[in-house]
Structure formats: C-alpha cells, structure tokens
Hints:
With about 400 residues, the protein is α+β, with helices and mostly antiparallel strands. It has helices at about 5, 10-15, 65-80, 85-100, 105-115, 125-140, 150-160, 165-185, 225-235, 240-250, 255, 290-300, 320-330, 340-350, 355-360, 370-375, 380-395, and strands spanning about 20-25, 30-35, 40-50, 50-60, 265, 270-275, 285. The protein is built from 17 helices and 7 strands. It is elongated, with a radius of gyration of 37 Å.
Amino acid sequence: MASSRQMHRLNALRVAKEVAPGYHADGGGLYLQISHSGSRSWIFRYSLAKRAREMGLGPLSSTSLAEARAAAAHCRKLLAAGVDPIADRQERKQAALAMPEALPFRQAAAGYIDAHRGSWKNAKHAQQWENTLDTYAYPVMGDVDVRDVDTAMVLRVLQPIWTKKNETASRVRGRIECVLDAAKVLGKRSGENPARWRGHLDKLLPKRERSKKVKHHPALPWGQIPDFMPRLVEREAPAARVLQLLILTCVRTSEALEARPEEFDLERRIWTVPPDRMKMEKELRVPLSAPALEIVREALKTASDDYLFPGQKARKPLSNMAMLNMLDRMGYSDITVHGFRSTFRDWVAECTEYPDSLAEMALAHAVENKVEGAYRRGDMLERRRKMMEDWARYCSGQTGVVVPLKTAATA
C-alpha cells in the first residue's frame, strides 16, 4: 500500500504554477498531464492483464485536484474488483443513451390533457383535470420523472382524500393512471402502472360503497312555486333573471348560465341549445313561454357578444354560485337550483295529464324505452310549448288553467 506521502504529491499551488510538459504524478496512478501546446488535463494510468492503459479524467479547467483524486480512487476500487474503469465508463454512457429523456409527471399530464382536449365535450372537463391534478397530485409527484412514480407516491396522493372525498379521489386515481399509461406508450416508463386499481390498489385502499343510491337534489315542493316566483321577479339582480329563465324552461344550470344571444329565435320563440353544451350531446330546442320570451328580450339589451348573462369578468358568464347565493338571500338555503327541474317534473305528474315522455323530453333526459325512442322521430316541440305555457301560468299563480287529472268519478 502506498504511503500518504506517495499518494498526494501535488498541491493546488504547484498544479496552478506547473508548466513543464509531461506527466506530473500525484500518486496512486493519478497524473497531471501537460502537453507541449500547454493544455493540461488529468490522467489515470493503470495496468490490466499486463496491458498499460490511460484514462482521461477531465481537463484541469473544469476538474479540480480534489475531484480528480476522487475519480482516481473510484477507478482503483473498480480495478480491485477486476473491472476495467474504461469499459465501465463506456457501459454507463451507453446505458445513459438508452435511457429515455426525463419527463416530469406535471409535463406528462399537461401533454395528455392537450392531446385529449379536443375530444372532451367541453372546456370544463379539461379544467377539472387540471384543477384536481394541481391540487392533489402535483404537490407529491409534479416534478418527479414519470419513470420514478411508484405505488408509495400514488398512495401519498390518495390516502388523505380517499375516505373524505372518495369521488374526487377516484377520479384523481384514474387520471394518474391515464397519464402514466400514456407515458409508457411513449417509452418514458416501463413496468406495471402503480395507479391501477384492479389487482393492485384495491388491495391497499378500502373499496367504494357499491350501492348506487340516487342522490336527489333538494327541491322546492311544486305547491310552493306560485308563492316563490313573484318574490323572485321582484329581485333586480341578473342572477334572479337567470334563475327565472331556468325555472320557466327547465334547463340545467350550465345551459342557462352559458346561454348565448345567437341561440335565441325571438320570432319563432325558440331557444336552440347546441349539442356541445348538452349533457347528452344532442341539440335541444326549448319552446319559450311568454314570460320566458320577455326575460330573453330584456337580457339581450345588456348581453355581451359571448353570453346572454355576462359575468363580472370579461368573456365569462355569470358565476354558478350566483343563483345559489340568490336563493340563500331569499331564505331558501335548503334547496338547490337543479332541484327546480324536479319541481317541474313533480308538477307534471301530480297536476296535469301530460305524458311522462313529454316531461322527460322537456328535461332533455334520455329515452329509456328503446322501442319508443325508435318510433319517436321529432322532438314534440309544439306539444311541449303548450305544456311550458301551462307551467309558466302555474308559476305565476294562475293555477286554474292547469289541466286536472281525471278522477275515478269523472271517468
């Protein structure tokens, strides 16, 4: 074994001042090489299988004496194990070239969302992807290479919300799985997907409640709507007009908030909601009753180029919380906006002779009876128009015009 004096012969001052061409030994096979042109670099000289070899460790300009000594020490360990340092370096370079370029999970997710954005029916879906991943996944794995995302990381994302926010957690899990699957197809990772459910996470996380109970939105009883509507009409806020139109037309919340001026034909008294704004992705023609038509006429006076009911922010509709806040201020915090569709549906069933299929069509629900759906070619617009006029009159308190159900006595 070489003595400490033989091992560290050079020092920083001598290295800086040395200019003589040749090999200047530091010990242990490490040399400072100075060429006749004046360039200076570190060399490790060794013998393997009775063959002398030299291995460059880097120029002096970028490799310090301490770094060169550390590299030489590593080479000596390899030689002691019977490994050629030059061959080992070549293998590591080839492995690095074969390894795919790093792809952070955040970047992989953004690429996945951009690739699928056009196939999703509305921008809100892409926004939900971005929001949930940004809130739950990115703090744990956003900057981690997709090849390094493992089960432990996925569990760190899901476990805090799996019980409290199970629906959200399930969607986050599925989105992580999709992103990692896409990364594997691109050759950025290999092996099983750590976010897969069946046969993997289902062994680590409690299963979701299997009973699919229908969650009903709290609704205003149909008998109270004649008292409710006059109070709503008295309100002057834009949210009151949106809510009034929603109740009179029975459309969904997003369909009312995102209504555009060009969708309304005032002469024919029809509101046409395009497929890309419908839950069933099918165009809906909404007949406008007299009071609904008047609401639209007034709203068009202050509408923007984008929305019938513009919000405070440019090119944005009224907030989806505006109507809920309106109900809260009116003392109806126990009901939801969506619940008014149930109010209408109950009124049709309890107070009129209009068929269920007509009410379902007004609500833009799918026709469950395939035979009925096959024979029904039109949308029964004019029949629905009469029903919506009766609904509007009932909402205004003119209950006498509602067609009563036949009783056993009259039958």
